[in-house]
Specification:
Helix content: 10-25%
Shape: globular
Order of helices and strands: EEEEEEEH
Largest sheet: 7 strands, antiparallel
Structural class: mainly beta
Radius of gyration: 15 Å
Number of helices: 1
Distance between the termini: 35 Å
Number of strands: 7
Strand order of the largest sheet: 4-3-2-1-7-6-5
Oligomer: single chain
């Protein structure tokens, strides 16, 4: 797997999904994260691309077809405190906001793991900005 220093690089077909008018949608952030499965709680490394209000994930940087999409509007993101048992696990969660109970049919929430504390904080901050942008935040 590539070095995490390139996680900010925008590249590969996954980063060039059409936006309005057929041009490429502006990528807000992209990088490698681990995602916990919905039914089977195993961890999978995925390439994540954040555009507008959607966080799409792919098998790798060169993949054209997203494995899934997390719609961020109306949801919330929270950091999980790291304790001694989870050293090196920089977890954050995207959960339904408002009166919704589940994110999708197979995910109550999305549990994601970054490789570093800084990376996790940057992802959380960026996702919060996207969620709150329609409200001027």
């Amino acid at each position: 797997m590539e070095d995490q220093a390139v996680s900010q690089r925008v590249g590969g077909p996954a980063a060039h999904v059409p936006g309005p008018g057929g041009g490429p949608a502006r990528v807000v952030r992209c990088g490698w994260l681990k995602k916990q499965g919905g039914f089977v709680k195993t961890w999978h490394t995925r390439w994540f691309v954040l555009r507008r209000e959607q966080l799409c994930y792919y098998k790798d940087e060169e993949e054209n077809k997203a494995l899934g999409t997390i719609v961020l509007s109306g949801n919330r993101v929270t950091e999980h405190a790291t304790n001694g048992d989870e050293g090196g696990k920089f977890l954050f969660e995207i959960a339904p906001g408002g009166d919704r109970e589940r994110m999708t049919a197979n995910h109550e929430t999305y549990l994601l793991m970054a490789n570093t504390q800084n990376d996790m904080e940057d992802w959380v901050k960026t996702i919060r900005r996207v969620i709150w942008a329609p409200f001027g935040g």
